[in-house]
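Consortium newsletter contribution from the modelling node. Members have asked for a concrete example of what our holo predictions look like. Here is one, prepared for the IPE complex that several groups have been discussing at recent meetings.
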Amino acid sequence: MSLFRKKTQLPEFDPTRVPRHIGIIMDGNGRWAKRRGLPRSAGHRAGIKVLEDIVEYADSIGVEMITAYAFSTENWKRSKEEVDALMALLLDYLKNFEKHLGGRNVRIRIIGERSALSEEMQAEMIRAEEGSAKNTGITVNMAINYGGRLEITKAVQQIAQRVKAGELEPEAITEDTLSDAMYLAGCPPLDFIIRPSGELRLSNFMLWDSAYAEFWFDNICWPDFRDQDLLRAVVAFQNRDRRFGNAQ
Ligand code: IPE
Ligand code: IPE
Ligand code: MG
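And here is the predicted structure:
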């Protein structure tokens, strides 16, 4: 049950047709900072704060799950200074999760390849997940060192091990076998993907689960994203005709 009660101001909003699961590619932090003459890390800090606000608002309108892209497997290409700043911010966010959304009934799960992250970060991930596991509000999947291709590769490795062990016949592998080996196994289907900042690409986000997701792109940079922008996006989603390959 949501603890957040906020007003929706768009009359077109239909509370009975809210996407259950929204993916957000939190992009544009660097450009936002540059325009203000600030270091890129200031953009990332502002971006984390915006995620908190948007999660609360999403919960208040009935969204069940948010998958937020925080750090991609390709983001290691950035300067050491920026990577270190991002990791420090994410660590701080996880350490203080209870003081923020965790204390307000939000559950967190981390998705992505953890082995490349510091031991301290890995420990905080487990702690934040376990500490919020009993919360009953919206769930946030934070994608940290996440890559869609790596996710599929890891799933295939896991399935190949089962074949090698004689537990599974190759012919018995179905789409469900793959789905069950993905991070979002058992989650509500990923209905809707939002990407601010003007880029019109997935950048390796949720390659498997995006098969029939709806997309919403906008020029706004993530740190400028507000409740009304989410509502605008959700209303656009509600006006889509989702056919899943069917005829009209
Ligand atoms: C998104 O903002 C955050 C991460 C990729 C970690 P960017 O840092 O990519 O911001 P722009 O795209 O350079 O503006
Ligand atoms: C995608 O944004 C990754 C995250 C938002 C975490 P990027 O800024 O890394 O993507 P590209 O490089 O513009 O494709
Ligand atoms: Mg970017």
